[in-house]
Write a structure and sequence with these properties.
Shape: elongated
CATH topology of the largest domain: Beta-lactamase
Radius of gyration: 41 Å
CATH class of the largest domain: Alpha Beta
CATH architecture of the largest domain: 3-Layer(aba) Sandwich
Largest sheet: 5 strands, mixed
Distance between the termini: 165 Å
Helix content: 25-40%
Number of domains: 2
C-alpha cells in the first residue's frame, strides 16, 4: 500500500472512532455536559459572593455615614464649633442707654502644621508682625504632626492684613467675636468680664450666663443674631465720678484699698459702685494681683462705729430706750479681762443724741446691754447683716460672726467689732434706717417703687426710722459727719473707724475707715457709703472723718445734681444763693 493510501486509511479510522463515541447519550458527551454545568455553577457562586461582598461594603459605609451624622462634633485642639465662634452676647447698657459692654467682630490666627513647608521661616515671618510672639512655642506647634493649632486669638484688622501679605501656606484665620468695654475700668467690678471664648467669668457678665445663655451655648442654640440688650441700674455718669474719687483715695490717702456705693434708698437700685484697686475688663489679666477683688460685695470688714447706727436703732425700736434717755459714760467698762473706753471720752452722762454724736463706745454698749444678747443677734439678722446678701452680682461674701454670742461679744459688736460684713450690705441696712424701716435687697437691674414695695421687708418701726433720720442729720451738723457736708444738699450720716486685726490683735496704727451717709435728710433719697482701708494720710488725720467723710462730700457735690437733687439754701430752702 502506498504511503498516501495508508494516510487515508488512518484518517478514516480516526473519523470513525470520533464519530462513534460522540453520539448523544454517549459516554464522552455526558462527560462534556457535566463539565459545562460545573463551570456554570462555579461562575454563579462567584458572582453571588461578589454581590454579597459589595453589599456588605456599602452597608458598612452607609452605617458609618449615619453614625457620623448623628454624633456630636469632636473638639480638636481647642477648635469650637463654627456657630459658637460668632455667637452673640447681649449688649450691657447703663440706665440711660449708654453702652457698658458690646461685641465686636475679630479674627484669630491658626495653623495647619501638616501643610507648613518650613516652620523656621514661618516663625520668622510671623514675628515681623507679632513682635511678642512666643518663638519657641510657635515653632513647636508648627513642627508638630497635628492638623490644627491656635497661634494667636483676636487679632486686629491691621495684623490680619499684614499676615495675609506674608503669604505663608498653612496659615489661616477664623472669625469670632470679642467683648469690648468702652469705659475700660470705669465699672469693671459691676460689669465683670469674659474669657477668651466670650463666656462670662465675673460680674453681670457671669450673671447673664447663669440666666440661660451658657446653657444655650452648651447645646449649640446660640447664634450671631444680636440679642436684646441688658440694662443695668448703674448711671454711667455717677459711676465715673465714684470710681475717680475711690481711685484718688487710694493714692491721696496712701491706703491699701478704697470703695464706695451710691444706692437708691427707696428702690434698692445700685446707681454706682466702685472698688480700688480695680482692673480693665478689656485686659483683665493685668489686674489679677489685687484688682479682681470686689471689696464692696466680696470683702468683709469690721465696720467700726457705723454699726452704732444699728445698735441705736435697735435700742429705740425695742421700746426700752428713747431719744430723751441718758447713759452714764464716765467710767470704762471692764469685762472678761477687757476694758471698753471711749476714743474721745466726755467722762459724763450722755444723752442718746450725744452718744451718737461723740461716738461713745460706753454709751452704745450700755444701750445694747439694755436690749439683751439674743435680741441683739436677732435684730442684726433681721437687718440682713449676719446673712449672705441676695443680689444679681455673683461675687458676694458671707458675713462672719461669733459661733456663740456672749455678753462680751454683744458689747464689742455694738460698736462694730466682732462681726464682719460687706460694705454693700451695710449700706443696704443703712437705707432701711432712713427710708421708713423697709429692708430692700440691692439690685443692679432697674426697679420701680412698686416693684421695690413687693420685695421690701419691714424691719423697724416708722417712728424709729424718723428718729434715725434726726440722728443722722444731727451728727452731720454737729458731729463727725461735718467733713461730709455739702452746702444745699443736707447730708447726714455716721463715721466708723475700726482698728484692724494684725496677727490676732487689734492694731492701733492700722484702721478701716467708713462713712455711712444719706442725703438730702429733709427727704432722704440716696445712701452713700465710702470706706478707706489702712490709710496713712488724710485731710487732717487718718480716722474716718478725715478720709471716708471727705470722699462722701466729693461724691455728693459732683453727683447730687446729676441725680436730680436740687440744693436748697437758707431756712426751709427760701434762699436762692449761698455764699461760699
Amino acid at each position: 500500500m502506498s504511503f498516501l493510501s495508508r494516510i487515508m486509511v488512518l484518517k478514516s479510522k480516526a473519523h470513525f472512532s470520533a464519530g462513534g463515541h460522540n453520539r448523544a447519550g454517549g459516554p464522552q458527551g455526558a462527560a462534556f455536559q457535566g463539565t459545562m454545568k460545573k463551570k456554570n455553577r462555579q461562575t454563579r457562586s462567584r458572582v453571588a459572593i461578589l454581590m454579597v461582598g459589595f453589599s456588605m461594603v456599602y452597608v458598612v459605609i452607609g452605617g458609618r455615614l449615619v453614625q457620623y451624622g448623628i454624633a456630636s462634633p469632636d473638639v480638636v485642639s481647642s477648635i469650637l464649633p463654627a456657630d459658637r465662634f460668632m455667637a452673640s452676647r447681649p449688649d450691657i447698657l447703663d440706665r440711660n442707654g449708654e453702652v457698658l459692654a458690646t461685641d465686636i467682630r475679630t479674627v484669630s490666627l491658626y495653623a495647619e502644621p501638616h501643610k507648613i513647608v518650613d516652620p523656621d521661616e514661618a516663625v520668622e515671618m510671623l514675628a515681623t508682625v507679632l513682635p511678642d510672639l512666643d518663638v519657641k512655642g510657635t515653632y513647636r506647634k508648627l513642627s508638630s504632626k497635628s492638623h490644627f493649632q491656635w497661634l494667636r486669638r483676636q487679632l486686629t484688622p491691621k495684623q490680619q492684613s499684614q499676615i495675609l501679605a506674608l503669604g505663608i501656606p498653612g496659615i489661616g484665620f477664623r472669625p469670632e467675636k470679642r467683648r469690648f468695654y468702652p469705659g475700660g475700668p470705669t465699672a469693671s467690678h459691676v460689669v465683670g468680664y469674659v474669657n477668651i471664648d466670650n463666656r462670662g467669668v465675673a460680674g453681670m457678665e457671669r450673671y447673664i450666663d447663669t440666666q440661660g445663655l451658657a446653657d444655650l451655648a452648651a447645646v449649640g442654640m446660640t447664634s450671631d443674631t444680636p440679642l436684646e440688650p441688658v440694662k443695668l441700674s448703674i448711671d454711667l455718669r455717677v459711676q465715673a465720678i465714684v470710681r475717680e474719687i475711690v481711685v484718688n483715695a487710694v493714692v491721696n490717702y496712701k491706703s491699701k484699698g478704697a470703695g464706695a456705693v451710691v444706692l437708691d434708698a427707696n428702690t434698692g437700685e445700685v446707681l454706682a459702685m466702685a472698688s480700688a484697686p480695680d482692673f480693665d475688663p478689656n485686659n483683665p489679666q493685668e489686674g489679677a494681683a489685687e484688682g479682681w477683688l470686689n471689696r464692696m460685695s466680696n470683702g468683709t470688714f469690721e465696720m467700726g462705729s457705723t454699726f452704732k447706727s444699728f445698735t441705736t436703732a435697735m435700742a429705740i425700736d425695742s421700746g426700752k430706750v428713747k431719744l430723751s434717755d441718758s447713759f452714764d459714760a464716765r467710767f470704762p467698762i471692764r469685762i472678761g479681762g477687757f476694758t471698753i473706753k471711749d476714743f474721745h471720752g466726755k467722762h459724763r452722762v450722755l444723752s442718746v443724741p450725744e452718744i451718737f454724736q461723740y461716738s461713745s463706745n460706753i454709751g452704745t454698749a450700755k444701750m445694747a446691754d439694755v436690749v439683751g444678747i439674743e435680741a441683739h443677734k436677732e435684730f442684726l439678722t433681721r437687718m440682713g447683716l449676719l446673712t449672705k446678701m441676695q443680689t444679681e452680682l455673683p461675687e458676694v461674701k458671707m458675713p462672719s460672726q461669733p459661733r456663740e454670742w456672749k455678753k462680751i461679744n454683744s458689747i464689742t459688736i455694738s460698736f462694730g467689732h466682732g462681726v464682719s460684713t460687706t460694705p454693700l450690705q451695710t449700706a443696704v441696712a443703712g437705707a432701711a434706717l432712713i427710708n421708713g424701716g423697709r429692708l430692700i435687697q440691692p439690685t443692679f437691674l432697674p426697679r420701680t417703687r412698686e416693684q421695690a414695695d413687693e420685695v421690701a421687708q419691714t424691719v423697724i418701726k416708722d417712728k424709729t426710722s424718723a428718729d434715725m433720720r434726726y440722728l443722722f442729720e444731727y451728727n452731720g451738723v454737729n458731729g463727725s459727719g461735718r467733713n461730709a457736708r455739702v452746702p444745699g444738699f443736707d447730708v447726714g450720716g455716721k463715721t466708723g473707724t475700726a482698728d484692724k486685726v494684725v496677727n490676732g490683735r487689734y492694731s492701733s496704727s492700722l484702721n478701716f475707715n467708713a462713712f455711712l451717709a444719706a442725703f438730702p435728710m429733709r427727704n432722704p433719697q440716696y445712701i452713700v457709703l465710702t470706706f478707706c482701708d489702712e490709710p496713712h494720710a488724710g485731710e487732717g488725720g487718718t480716722i474716718a472723718s478725715f478720709t471716708a467723710a471727705p470722699m462722701v462730700r466729693d461724691i455728693i457735690r459732683r453727683a447730687g445734681p446729676i441725680l436730680g437733687v436740687e440744693p436748697q439754701f437758707g431756712a426751709n430752702g427760701t434762699a436762692l444763693l449761698e455764699s461760699y
